[in-house]
Structure formats: C-alpha cells, structure tokens
Amino acid sequence: MREGVRAHGSALMRTEWEGSYLDGRTAARQRATIRVMASGLEVTTERGTTLWWPYGEIRQTQGFYAGEQVRLERGGETPEALLVSDAAFLTDLRRVAPKVATYFHDHARRKMRVKLTLMAALGAVGAAAALYLWGIPALAAAAAPRVPVAWEERLGESVVEYLAPPEKQCADPARVRVIGQIVATLTAPLPNPPYTFRVMVVDDSRVNALAAPGGYVVIFRGLLERTRSAEELAGVLAHELQHILKRHATRALLQHASTGVLIAALTGDATGVMAYGLESARALGALRYSRENEEEADVEGLRMLLAAGVEPAGMIAFFDVLRKEGGEGPGLLKYLSTHPSTAERIETLKALAAQAPRATVKLLPDYDWRDITKICQGGGRQAAASPRARPAAAAPVPPRGVGRVHFVPVGEFPAASVEHLVAHYRDRYGLAIETLTAVPLESAAVDLLRQQLVAEELIVLVKRHHPRLAADPEVILIGLTLYDMYIRGRTWRFAFAWREDGRFAVISSARMDPVNFGGPPDPDLLHTRLRKMATKSIGIMHYRLPQSGDRSSVMYGPILGLDDLDSVGEDF
Q1: Distance (Å, rounded) from C-alpha 113 to C-alpha 107?
Q2: Which CATH number does 5-105 carry?
Q3: Rounded CA gap, 255 and 565, in Å?
Q4: Model pTM?
Q5: pLDDT for 125-147, tens place per residue?
C-alpha cells in the first residue's frame, strides 16, 4: 500500500493531502502536506515547519457546496488557515476521525437535512404565523443586543453596496473630510464605541438619510443641500448615529426577515444568511421605526449634541423646517415618512434643550457651509479604482487640531524612533509634539501567561506617571512600547494600538519589526509602519477624523494585521 493511503473497509482512504497554509500574519501562501490523524491534523509547510492542529480548535469556513474549496481556520481575529481544493478531503477526514465528524460539513447529510427541514416547515405553517405575529418581534428585540458587531458590519456593508454603490457616492475628499470632522466631534465623548462610523453621501436629489447596521450612515444629496449650517447636519447625524448605537436598524431587520435567517441556519446554508444582506438592503429603505425608536433617537441624539458641546437648536430648526415644508415635494415626504418629526416631538426637544447648558463648540466657524452642496460636482464621485491605489498627492491636513499631543515612551522604547516621529510630524504637518519622560514597566501591565503587555494597563501607567497632564482635557498622551501587547477587553490575539476616552493611546511596534519574525533589520519599514499607526491615532484624537473604508487613507480601519497595515497610505 502506498504511503498516505490505507484500507477502510472495502475502500481506500487517503491520510495525506496537498494544500496551502496561511499563517494569519501575511497574505503569502505556503504549500503544505496535511496528514489526517485521529485527534488532529499534522501540517508540514514547504519551509519545513510542522504544526499540530487539534480538531477541537478547527472551524470550517468554506467547502459547504460542490466545487467550493475547503477552508479550515484556527485562531482568533487573524486566524491561520488551510486550503484544500478537493472536497473528498472532508470525507476521508470523517472516516479517520468519526468522533469529530459533526465538526465538518457532509454534503449527503445536508441534502437530507434540507428535505426534512422543508417537510417540517410545511407542517408548521400555523405555528410560524403565530410566531411571526407575536414571537418574532420579541425575539428580535432580545437578540439585537447580542448580535456580534462583526455580523452587523457585514450586514451594513451589504446595505451600502446596494443603496450607495461607489459609482453613486460623492467622494470629493475635502468636503468628505468636513462631514468627517462633524462625526468625529459628535462621537469623541463616547467611551469606546463598538463601531467604526462611516458616512456616505449619495448623488440623489431626494431629501433622505438612513442608518445601516454596523456604523454606516447614508446621506442623500437632497438632504445635504437642505441644511443651512453644520449644526443642522450634526442634528441629522446625531439622530442617525443613535439609531445605530441603539441597534434600531438591526432589530427591525431581524424582525423583518428572522424566518428566512432561521431556515438558512437550520439547513446549514451559511450563504443564506449573507444573501439576506441584499434582502435587508432593499428592506431598509422601506422600514418604519416605531414611535418609541424615533423618540429615543431624538432624545439621545440631542444628548449627543450636548455632550459634544454642539448647539442643539440646529437639530430642532431643521426638523421643524422639514415638518412645515413637508408638502412641497416627494423628497421631503420621504424623509418625514421614515423619520416622522411631529410637532409634539419637536416641542419635547425644545424643552430638553432649554434645560441644557449653553454650547461650547462652534462647528467649522471658518467654513462657508454653502460649499458643502458642491460635494457631488466636478467629478466628486468615487472612481472605480483599485482598493490599494494611492492618491497622486497627499490630502491636506484639517486646518486645526484639538489638544496638545505628547509621546510617552513605555519601557525601553528606542529614543531614535521617538525622535524620528517628532521630526516627521514637525516637518510634514507643522505639529509640535513633546516627548515626556519614559514610564517604567510594572508587573500589573504584564500578562505572564500570554507573555504580552495589557494595553489597558499601559494607559493606566501613563496616566499615573503623568497625572497633571492626564487631568488636562487639552492634552493627548500617546504611549509607545516595543513589547507585544493585547487588549483585555477584546478577543484579538494582539494589537498594534489601543485608544481610550478620546485622549489616551498606546502603540506597540513589536509586530511591526521584521526582526521579530526572523527577518533582517529594516529600519525604514519599521518606521513607516510605526508612523502609520501613530498618524491614525493623531488623526482620531487630535484632528477628530473618523476611520474610513478607503485603503489609500491612513484612517482606514480596522487594521487586522501587517497585510492591512502595509497596504494603507500614510496621508489623511
């Protein structure tokens, strides 16, 4: 019997397979030999490295359908992966390890499960009707807070692809940044928001705006042209952001199509759930939030304005104008039908605003707001370019930042690297950054079991060693460490950076340094990577810029590994 094949009853069974291995840190594939064993997979890469994958740590993410490549993953946010082109690999894996057969997909069983599910569905029409009328709304309300943010983001992406495809988006860089500054001002007081907020402007004359799950807001050109000040648009944005933060859209979409999602899950059809993204995109434009949801978005949106120090009168005035002019055109009727601003609700907002302290922030005082209406003119729509394309010239930095930036070395961070950063921001952006005395590492910041530093504890150290500056609301402190770190409040294996409270950050260069991965020293590459993460933190905390989905911008997010970090640009 040749090596890699053994008898199994009357059939021959392969125990060795050829495939590809990805290490989760780079996009490079390595050829690999995969040995199927009773308790796990033994993987030998073309570089001679042997890895052991216990079945209990493996999950299957592709290979559920005929002709589809099998993909197995192991690990957290940036997992390792094995790719095998022959689906018969799964059949022989189940024969070798029958105790874990249920971990992996079986095409034959899926067909039977689909038939049984359809039969059960036909026999439960009455029960399903009752569930739809009474049970699903309650289940949707209970399930929405437990939906993973990553799932919401995928759903939001599907909505945006349908309602705001790139060819319809108005992407004039300077004016997009103006809107980004407003969003950054509104969200700056939020403690660790779960979403990366993104606003898209669509070249459409209708007066409308909507919030999609996962942090996406779509503004129609017609609504933007109706606003008379930054404060009025801030009111609309605050209302929509609250729909996202309160998960109103997620809950409504779950209620709208929970039956389809449940059937997809029951049949093992993972793509059925993702196909729901298109269905949800079509549904979102027709959704009507409950009066309670709208009132909550009103009140919490007004509170968001107040927390950011923005005058709430703009929000009230804009909603009041739309209410009064609602009969002038279908665009206005569209917005009011999905965001009904009744006189009673406007009076409630006026009463709340009257009790609030005076605003402390004047949004964009030096900007002529009429200029924002040109966002879709002059070739401002997005070009169908490669996602990795770089802009021909660096985008200008926003005119004014907020706060004074300080770098704080933590542990034995190289002085030369700090000096390089300080010189870079002075020469490129005219930004004067002061370097503070180094903070020694303490045992509380070290996780001995993981052999990593804890990002949250590093920020505690920085605050404790510089208490006067930490208490100054005009100061931004950015810690720099050369040791590997992770975020205790996340499931990630590691982190390049972590930010808190809009004023504190810590950046680790450990996984940016090629030396730590067996490569030769490359100071230029290390400094480029370090600058990108530092510039992004400065953009968020000093210039109040939002993260974006544009890889040509340093504000791209999230950054999940070196492949992402190396592919983004350095400019805002």
Answers
A1: 10
A2: 2.30.29.30
A3: 38
A4: 0.47
A5: 444 444 444 444 554 455 455 56
